[in-house]
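Q: I'm building a small set of examples for a reading group on sequence design. Run inverse folding on the following structure and report the sequence directly after it, with nothing in between.
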């Protein structure tokens, strides 16, 4: 390396070096791809892979501590995940309501369970109403067959629904 190389020059040199990339790829397969390189002038450079589990993006940056860092694609993915989680929390009740228009596939498992349970409550309630209606119709039919005179105005104590 040249004597007066800037950190930016060094980063470009590392990124463009096929051997460096190959070595980093091998190291990343062993989960050991986190290397700090000392440069002239007291600068340090860090070669590392993205902290996301399923990402092998190799990054070369000026060393600022070995905190977890993500590549741009994963950063965006995490941001989108965060936004969608915030939206989910904000619309939690709407999304789990029995009459919700949110597709089932957009719900997490907890929400699916809640919506199923609420749907079942609605079905049970409708079934109860239908049974009551059937009973009243049966009674009415019986009364109609039995009665000499039928009143439907409720004056005989029969209310329809
Ligand atoms: Zn990544």
């Amino acid at each position: 390396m040249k004597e007066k190389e800037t950190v930016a020059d060094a980063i470009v040199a590392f990124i463009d070096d096929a051997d460096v990339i190959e070595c980093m790829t091998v190291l990343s397969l062993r989960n050991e791809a986190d290397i700090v390189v000392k440069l002239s002038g007291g600068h340090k450079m860090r070669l590392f892979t993205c902290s996301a589990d399923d990402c092998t993006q190799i990054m070369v940056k000026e060393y600022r501590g070995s905190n977890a860092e993500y590549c741009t694609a994963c950063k965006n993915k995490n941001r989108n995940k965060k936004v969608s989680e915030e939206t989910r929390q904000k619309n939690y009740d709407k999304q789990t309501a029995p009459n919700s228009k949110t597709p089932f596939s957009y719900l997490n498992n907890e929400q699916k369970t809640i919506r199923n349970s609420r749907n079942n409550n609605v079905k049970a309630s409708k079934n109860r109403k239908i049974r009551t209606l059937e009973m009243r119709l049966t009674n009415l039919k019986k009364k109609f067959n039995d009665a000499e005179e039928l009143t439907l105005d409720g004056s005989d104590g029969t209310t329809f629904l």
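The two ends are 92 Å apart (CA to CA).
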